[in-house]
């Protein structure tokens, strides 16, 4: 392989990393008319008047003064306050916020001004549903015990002589999924017509992590589409018939899954967009218009999921929610790799050790290819003087030069691309591992050894310093494993034949420096894979070089 071809491959790889690191935006969704017509199951509702569903100016709630109910199971605890029967807290009991021993559970509701499950009418602005006080016959702590059946927990409030609102939560044991029914009953003596909006408010689960952004996503038939905040104000940015809409990052998700047949809209809005650190994503589930005769009721049903992106739990929630675990183009590799990794973990009990053993397995599978690659490069290096002579002799006759070179390759049974193509075959495996390690909640907060206490976090040995560096960002510790990875990559490149091309040799020596910089903020589990792969490659190259010399 000549230096230009090699340079093109290297630059392609570097371009991928630079793009992924700095410029990869969420997918900007623009719903085509054809897609809308095929997925829409009911006539399109007109948009509500501007400002009709603006969030109510609710002051911060003093939870100590309000009656509160706790519902859920051994997986989560959800708190409902009497004012508006809104969600004031949602804790994931099996997941901590940080690695500290006394760290509280992950909290998915982080606001006291804008609380989820607030409901309001579009046209009857005189009826303030968010200020209503709800009552319930349920005990203040109504958790579903393991082995129990599903439990319905009801909250009710009314505007005397006008309307009655009932919220019914169906809590299922051993599941992060629950069902919400909102029932509107006309208790007046006149007909009642309106549309009902239910608001959900989301805040980023983590801040300052460029590799784990919180984002709004909808899915249609297993195809996921991220929605940028810049798109929120565009009409129809979210289709009227979807599998689910969710606020998610790599590890946790809060999903809305409409069940009620008929027209509805899901309308996203940004609150405090001028302050990214305090920006809130608001999603309104807006029903179609309904008409109620006196004493007539209408029920709207939503399935909800708030929890980790564990495939088994997501499958239990139905609605094709498991598609939220998206490994991109290399899902066909990432899924079996994850299955093997978890199988190994079941025996060794340490995901770091499991990654090492998985790396060895992958190396064994690719051993014949890499052996062929290294052997081909050795032969090309020995032929380099003869190749250079032909290039000099026929430098003015490119056709004759190519003919002579092909004859040399044929005589000595050498493929000029043989040193490159087998190694390129391993690139999809690397990308699949990258996505798998980046989006597997089972690895979150899982330690390896010594300072590596979270395989999904960047490699840092904390030494009491923190600096901000260009291109790298904040460095709050020494990336020891990443530096070792760079050193082993340098040693591997020094041992690898380059065919005597000076340009190629320089590029090969620059690569370890570039990769070390790129890997500084990658998950330490991925760095561990690359480090172990380098060690195995060095051992293989040493063995080949020794036999070639003999």
Polypeptide structure, described:
α5 crosses α6 and α5 packs across α11 (524-549). The protein is of the alpha+beta class. The protein has helices spanning 3-23, 33-39, 311-316, 331-348, 351-393, 398-411, 421-424, 427-438, 480-495, 502-519, 524-549; strands at 68-72, 76-81, 87-96, 105-107, 118-121, 141-143, 151-159, 163-171, 177-186, 192-194, 196-202, 215-220, 223-227, 244-248, 252-258, 264-271, 280-287, 290-292, 297-308, 467-469, 473-475. The strands form five sheets. It has an eight-stranded antiparallel β-sheet. It has a five-stranded mixed β-sheet with strand order 4-3-2-1-6, with no helix packed on it. The chain contains eleven helices and 21 strands.
Shape: elongated
The major β-sheet equals: 8 strands, antiparallel
As for the number of domains, it is: 2
Taking Cα atoms only, what radius of gyration do you get, to the nearest Å?
29 Å
* Helix coverage percent: 25-40%
DSSP helical segment count: 11
What name does CATH use for the topology of the largest domain? Beta-galactosidase, Chain A, domain 5
Tally of strands: 21
Mean pLDDT: 80
Question: pLDDT below 50 for ≥5 consecutive residues: which ranges?
Answer: 1-9, 18-43
SSE arrangement:
Blueprint: H1 3-23, H2 33-39, E1 68-72, E2 76-81, E3 87-96, E4 105-107, E5 118-121, E6 141-143, E7 151-159, E8 163-171, E9 177-186, E10 192-194, E11 196-202, E12 215-220, E13 223-227, E14 244-248, E15 252-258, E16 264-271, E17 280-287, E18 290-292, E19 297-308, H3 311-316, H4 331-348, H5 351-393, H6 398-411, H7 421-424, H8 427-438, E20 467-469, E21 473-475, H9 480-495, H10 502-519, H11 524-549
Parallel strand pairs: 1-6
Antiparallel strand pairs: 1-2, 2-3, 3-4, 5-11, 7-8, 8-9, 9-19, 10-18, 11-17, 12-13, 12-14, 14-15, 15-19, 16-17, 20-21
Helix pairs in contact: 1-10, 4-5, 4-8, 5-6, 5-11, 9-10, 9-11
């Amino acid at each position: 392989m000549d230096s230009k071809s090699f340079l093109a491959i290297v630059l392609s790889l570097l371009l991928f990393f630079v793009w992924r690191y700095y410029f990869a935006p969420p997918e900007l969704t623009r719903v085509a008319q054809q897609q809308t017509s095929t997925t829409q199951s009911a006539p399109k509702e007109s948009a509500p008047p501007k400002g009709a569903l603006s969030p109510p100016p609710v002051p911060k709630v003093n939870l100590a003064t309000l009656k509160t109910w706790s519902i859920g199971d051994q997986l989560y605890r959800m708190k409902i306050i009497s004012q508006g029967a809104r969600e004031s807290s949602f804790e994931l009991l099996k997941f901590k916020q940080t690695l500290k021993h006394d760290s509280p559970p992950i909290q998915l509701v982080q606001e006291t001004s804008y609380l989820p499950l607030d409901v309001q009418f579009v046209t009857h602005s005189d009826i303030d549903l968010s200020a209503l006080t709800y009552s319930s016959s349920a005990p203040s702590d109504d958790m579903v015990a393991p082995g129990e059946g599903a439990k319905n927990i009801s909250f009710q409030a009314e505007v005397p002589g006008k309307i009655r609102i009932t919220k019914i939560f169906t809590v299922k044991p051993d599941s992060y999924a629950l069902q919400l029914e909102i029932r509107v009953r006309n208790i007046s003596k006149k007909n009642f017509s309106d549309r009902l909006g239910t608001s959900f408010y989301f805040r980023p689960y983590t801040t300052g992590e460029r590799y784990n952004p919180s984002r709004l996503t909808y899915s249609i038939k297993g195809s996921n589409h991220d929605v940028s905040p810049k798109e929120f104000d565009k009409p129809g940015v979210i289709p009227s018939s979807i599998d689910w809409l969710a606020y998610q990052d790599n590890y946790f998700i809060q999903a809305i899954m409409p069940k009620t047949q008929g027209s509805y809209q899901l309308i996203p809005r940004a609150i405090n967009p001028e302050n990214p650190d305090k920006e809130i994503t608001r999603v309104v589930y807006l029903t179609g218009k309904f008409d109620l005769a006196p004493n007539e009721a209408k029920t709207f049903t939503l399935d909800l999921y708030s929890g980790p992106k564990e495939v088994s739990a997501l499958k239990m929630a139905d609605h094709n929610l498991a598609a939220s675990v998206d490994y991109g183009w290399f899902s066909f590799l990432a899924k079996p790799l994850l299955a093997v990794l978890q199988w190994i973990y079941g025996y060794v009990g340490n995901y770091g050790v499991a990654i090492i053993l998985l790396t060895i397995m992958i190396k064994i599978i690719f051993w014949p290819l890499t052996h062929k690659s290294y052997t081909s490069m050795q032969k090309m290096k020995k032929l380099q003087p003869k190749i250079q002579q032909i290039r000099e002799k026929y430098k003015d006759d490119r056709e004759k030069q190519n003919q002579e070179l092909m004859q040399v390759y044929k005589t000595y049974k050498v493929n000029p691309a043989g040193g490159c193509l087998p190694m390129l075959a391993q690139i999809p495996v690397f990308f699949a591992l990258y996505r798998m390690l980046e989006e597997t909640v089972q690895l979150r907060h899982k330690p390896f050894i010594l300072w590596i206490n979270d395989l999904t976090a960047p490699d840092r040995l904390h030494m009491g310093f923190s600096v901000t560096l260009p291109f790298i960002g904040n460095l709050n510790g020494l990336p020891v494993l990443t530096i070792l990875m760079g050193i082993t990559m340098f040693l591997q490149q020094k041992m690898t034949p380059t065919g005597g091309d000076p340009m190629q040799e320089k590029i090969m020596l620059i690569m370890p420096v570039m990769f070390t910089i790129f890997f500084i903020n990658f998950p330490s589990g991925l760095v561990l894979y690359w480090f172990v792969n380098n060690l195995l490659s060095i051992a293989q190259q040493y063995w080949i070089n020794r036999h070639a010399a003999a």
